[in-house]
């Protein structure tokens, strides 16, 4: 569900996309899956191919291929804008390699109080 267009490599970096998918479990409970998909340079495509005793590097240089990655937040609450902001914060810390522990950041986000629906912000 986090790659509705299929998992495909790209020759160019695409802009991040955000969308929400609603999944229903066996008890008819809704689960809101907020997805932020972005493309990252793939560095594990360097392979070697042996041709007539010579080694030739992989056909596609790794800096020219981008692979999709997804950050997903699953909740029983329907707060797409809050979840978009949370995923955007995690994305920014990850992409900009900020000196912040992702584990600590996610733990802090999970411990935030979310107001009741219809209540004050």
UniProtKB/TrEMBL annotation:
Q: Which Pfam families match?
A: DENN (PF02141), uDENN (PF03456)
Q: Name one GO molecular function term.
A: guanyl-nucleotide exchange factor activity
Keyword check for Transit peptide, yes or no: no
Its Gene Ontology biological processes? regulation of Rab protein signal transduction
Q: Which InterPro entries match?
A: cDENN_dom, DENN_Domain_GEFs, Tripartite_DENN, uDENN_dom
Q: Which GO terms describe its cellular component?
A: cytoplasmic vesicle
Which PANTHER family does the record match to this protein? C-MYC PROMOTER-BINDING PROTEIN, DENN DOMAIN-CONTAINING PROTEIN 4
Query: What protein does this entry describe?
Result: MTMRD protein
